[in-house]
Amino acid sequence: MAVVAGLTRRPLEQVSGLLRRRFHRTAPAALQVTVREAINQGMDEELERDEKVFLLGEEVAQYDGAYKVSRGLWKKYGDKRIIDTPISEMGFAGIAVGAAMAGLRPICEFMTFNFSMQAIDQVINSAAKTYYMSGVAAQHSQCFAAWYGHCPGLKVVSPWSSEDAKGLIKSAIRDNNPVVVLENELMYGVPFELPPEAQSKDFLIPIGKAKIERQGTHVTIVSHSRPVSHCLEAATVLSKEGIECEVINMRTIRPMDIETIEASVMKTSHLVTVEGGWPQFGVGAEICARIMEGPAFNFLDAPVVRVTGADVPMPYAKVLEDNSVPQVKDIIFAIKKTLNM
Which positions fall inside the Transketolase-like pyrimidine-binding domain (predicted)? Predict the structure, then answer.
């Protein structure tokens, strides 16, 4: 019956029905391209589009790159735009930064990115800060705790007081491992009482052990180096409002004394971290992760609050610099936030 019904339609109706049918269209086959070829293609297209673009690096020209990423570009664009450099990452990275400042668009290739550490000053202190700076302070007032603390094989200590400084430097000297001592230049002239035991020639502070500078029951504050002073000052202010803060001086960044922090959080059920470094991937972020992964997480009554430096290159002007690092008021605000006050 269905066939008969179809045959009894008028010719025009049959044509319109045919037009309404949906035909399956085969999608064009995806092109298989290696990552090497894709990068090469991208650079080639940009070199062709803009004469200000050029490529420099070790063996990027006649040898076509160590991994052949720049294959064929030297033959196409010549010596002026595809430039082989000496094995001096600091040198040619600086050339790239300077060229970019002059209006060109350099592609700076390291033979392997592991070699980029040879040029880290150019990448961080020149390239990253250029738009923000006015010509000074590129290498000043930075916190490198998270940078060095990230690296296996290093021990990293960050003293706050005179007691910390003496005990940790002596322990670092005696340690058979490489130890990075992060001394805050603003603390050099600050006087502290040195207890009798610290005056001994045999006085040492064990690396990897934090110190509770102030006992408290309502909130745990974890910090290191100069911000410890601000934390203690904030704790004194808040004690007048009935808030008792437990202040932990980390002393060591790596290996981190997470046990002391966990024990305090289990007691106070609140945590605030304070550091002078930038917020992304910082010491406070690592503490948050450790707490979340460990037994103390179930004791928290509120999310952890981080107090960090501003997410900008450190400015040179004193007023701007003061407002780019944690102040007492910032710590007080964070504590009241986690306590929902």
Answer: 33-190
